Structure formats: structure tokens, C-alpha cells
TrEMBL record:
<protein>
    <submittedName>
        <fullName>Glycosyltransferase</fullName>
    </submittedName>
</protein>
<dbReference type="Pfam" id="PF00534">
    <property type="entry name" value="Glycos_transf_1"/>
</dbReference>
<keyword id="KW-0808">Transferase</keyword>
<feature type="domain" description="Glycosyl transferase family 1">
    <location>
        <begin position="198"/>
        <end position="359"/>
    </location>
</feature>
<dbReference type="InterPro" id="IPR001296">
    <property type="entry name" value="Glyco_trans_1"/>
</dbReference>
<dbReference type="GO" id="GO:0016757">
    <property type="term" value="F:glycosyltransferase activity"/>
</dbReference>
<dbReference type="GO" id="GO:0009103">
    <property type="term" value="P:lipopolysaccharide biosynthetic process"/>
</dbReference>
Length: 389
């Protein structure tokens, strides 16, 4: 049986499971990660995302760990394929070292795009110098990879344009488990029942409230709609911008915004399905480099999408291509409020968006479909003697 090495400081259990199923009968997996995705892993240093400082320290610890691992293992092991993620970003360099060490093809997947992610969040002359050098390095080295993966077509286009030289790149989205996440009637949803949401038109924001998420525009829209008692904005999650929601709730108590922490595993499927519509809010600067994977979860739950971002990107393309909701550009809170109000009034339109969302999740984004795409991809690089042959 062939062998594949996966290198990712952080990796979601669901994504690893998709990889494992895609490789069943094709290859055995060795994985270097900080996450306990299976019993036998090479335990990497933990990733701490609390601040830029903790992230940098985490990345450096991982880099040093990988240097030690390479020295110890490059002569005693053989791999037929290496799969490397952009977490941490130094993996873009590590991947090429592993390619040389093991003389094996390497696939690099961009979960984040660097240095663009830095350029969008840090405005400092030193970061400008670092990013300029980083872009130059990318231009010289991206073409050395056997294949690069992007989360969506807009990201793939951005990566191609950024290096100005031919590279092998393919859009390969995240999947969603449509058997786990599915539509639930509010009167049968324990999260709705316990929190008094059954009679409300729920506008849901669930997930990280981070620097790249436009929480401000959502709160401005909520303020404009506060007199519509049936419309309730529900925030579920954590992050540096959670304090903005906390301040809003404190200033306007008992109004139209409710705030909850991330829910337990048992309640997650219920909280994710509590919305009539669900918001995916990106800063305009991040629209081309941040993939809206959370949107897939909302769509699996049959929720209409309200997208917020720039004039292009995978989120806008997703909504327009599959007709699953509305999209707001130019940081326009009035436009956002108007579109939410229209959805509140037009039940037939919301029904159409919700049906389209669920149908698209089942037919395009389900993890079983994504698994088969990865299986086909791996067979192209591994081939040879597998259990299937």
C-alpha cells in the first residue's frame, strides 16, 4: 500500500475524516498535527490564535519542530505523496523541503492566502517590506509544487494573478455533512424553544467574530430594524469583536439582539439551524482571500444567506450562482437593513432561497461528494498498487 504524509499544525477533524475516507484502500496516512484527529499522530506544537504574538510563536515552534522531524526521518521513511496545508504559513517553505527530502510529489492547500492575509490586517512599513519579499519568494517557488489547491475559484484566480507565472492550481472546496446539519422546524428545535425564538424571524450570525468579520455593519442594521419586534438578531460565538455585540446588548437591553457563546456539541446542530436567514459577514478587503466555508453549514440547515463583502469573491459568487440569498457591498448598513426587511416580508422569497440552499448543499457540497473529488485527485498522483487495483 502507498503512503501519504499530511502536514498541518491545525486540521479540522471533519476534514481529516474526508481525507481518510478518500484514501481508503489507496494509501496509509501519516500525519503531523497538533490536533488529535486519530490515535497515532506525530504531535506537533499547539497552535494559539489569541493574538498576532501567540500565532507567531506557535508558527516558530512548529518550524523548529519540523526541522527536528526532517533530520530524524528523511532517511528512514518513504512517502508516495505529501499533502501540506497553509497552517502555519511557513509550510509553504517546509513543503518544498519535504519534496526534496522524500523525492515525492507535494500538494499544497491554501486555507489562508499569504502574504495577502497579512496585508489586509497589518498596515506597517515593516510588514510592507516582509510582504514584498514574500510575494517575490512565491513568484519563484509556487511553480515548484506539483499542485496547489484553493478553497474556491475566486481564491484560485487571486493566487494565479499574484505570482504572474504558470502554476498548477485547482479549486477544491470544504464539504459539509448534510446528514448531521439539516433543516429543523423551530417548534422542534430545542435551542429555539429554550431561548424563546420560535415566534421570531431569526437573523443568525454563528461563528468566530474576528478581525476579518464585519460585525459592525450587522449591528448598524440591527439598530435600524429595532422597531420591528418580530426580527431578532442572534449572535453565537466568540472572538475579538464579540465585545462589540456585548456593548450593543448592554446599551440596548431587551431589544433585537441576543448573544450566546459557542454551543456544546449536543446543541450545535440546533443552534446552527435556528435562523430563517444566516449572515456571512466579511470585510471588503478579505472577500477575495477568505473562503465562506461557514456558509455551507448554514445552507445544509436550509437557511437563506445574507452575504456581506466586497465587489467580488467566492461568497458573492456562491450566492449568485446558486440563488441562495442576497448580497451587500460597499459596507452599506442601510442596504443590509432593507434587504433583511424585504426577506422578513417576503416569505415566498425566503422559502425559495432556503430550498435552493439545502438542495445545493446536498448535491454539490456534501462531504461524500467532496470525498470522491479528493479520491480522484489522489488516484491521479498515487495510482500504482492499491487495494482497488
Amino acid at each position: 500500500m502507498k503512503k501519504i504524509l499530511i502536514v498541518s499544525q491545525e486540521i479540522q477533524k471533519q476534514f481529516y475524516d474526508v481525507m481518510e475516507q478518500a484514501l481508503e484502500g489507496i494509501a496509509q496516512i501519516d500525519i503531523i498535527t497538533a490536533n488529535k484527529v486519530k490515535n497515532d499522530i506525530w504531535k506537533a506544537p499547539d497552535y494559539h490564535a489569541e493574538s498576532l504574538k501567540t500565532r507567531f510563536i506557535s508558527w516558530m515552534n512548529f518550524f523548529l519542530f519540523m526541522q527536528r522531524w526532517r533530520r530524524k526521518n528523511k532517511k528512514g521513511r518513504k512517502y508516495d505523496l505529501i499533502f501540506v496545508s497553509s497552517n502555519p504559513p511557513i509550510n509553504i517553505w517546509i513543503g518544498l523541503r519535504l519534496k526534496k527530502d522524500f523525492q515525492a510529489p507535494v500538494i499544497f492547500t491554501h486555507w489562508d492566502i499569504y502574504p495577502q492575509a497579512i496585508e489586509c490586517s497589518i498596515d506597517h512599513y515593516l510588514s510592507h517590506i516582509v510582504c514584498k519579499l514574500w510575494r517575490r519568494w512565491n513568484h519563484l517557488n509556487y511553480k515548484k509544487y506539483d499542485l496547489m489547491l484553493a478553497n474556491g475559484p475566486a481564491e484560485a484566480e487571486l493566487i494565479e494573478q499574484s505570482v504572474q507565472c504558470p502554476i498548477r492550481i485547482k479549486a477544491m472546496p470544504f464539504g459539509v455533512d448534510t446528514r448531521l446539519l439539516k433543516p429543523l422546524k423551530k417548534e422542534e428545535n430545542i435551542f429555539c424553544i429554550e431561548n424563546g425564538l420560535t415566534e421570531k424571524f431569526v437573523v443568525l450570525y454563528s461563528g468566530t467574530m474576528g478581525i476579518g468579520h464585519n460585525i459592525e455593519i450587522v449591528l448598524k442594521a440591527a439598530r435600524k430594524l429595532e422597531k420591528i419586534e418580530d426580527i431578532l438578531f442572534v449572535f453565537v460565538g466568540q472572538g475579538v469583536k464579540r465585545q462589540l455585540v456585548e456593548k450593543y446588548v448592554a446599551r440596548y437591553p431587551n431589544k433585537n439582539v441576543r448573544l450566546f457563546p459557542f454551543q456544546s456539541v449536543e446543541k450545535y446542530v440546533f443552534s446552527m439551524a435556528c435562523g430563517d436567514v444566516a449572515i456571512v459577514a466579511q470585510n471588503a478587503e478579505n472577500s477575495m482571500i477568505a473562503y465562506p466555508s461557514k456558509a455551507f453549514s448554514f445552507m445544509a440547515c436550509g437557511e437563506a444567506l445574507v452575504g456581506i463583502g466586497g465587489d467580488d469573491g467566492d461568497l458573492k459568487r456562491l450566492i449568485c450562482t446558486y440563488d441562495v440569498g442576497v448580497y451587500v457591498e460597499n459596507n452599506d448598513a442601510s442596504d443590509l437593513a432593507e434587504k433583511i426587511f424585504r426577506l422578513y416580508q417576503d416569505k415566498e422569497l425566503v422559502r425559495k432561497y432556503r430550498e435552493n440552499a439545502r438542495k445545493t448543499a446536498e448535491e454539490v457540497m456534501d462531504i461524500r461528494i467532496v470525498k470522491e473529488k479528493y479520491r480522484e485527485l489522489f488516484l491521479n498522483y498515487l495510482g500504482g498498487d492499491t487495494d482497488e487495483q
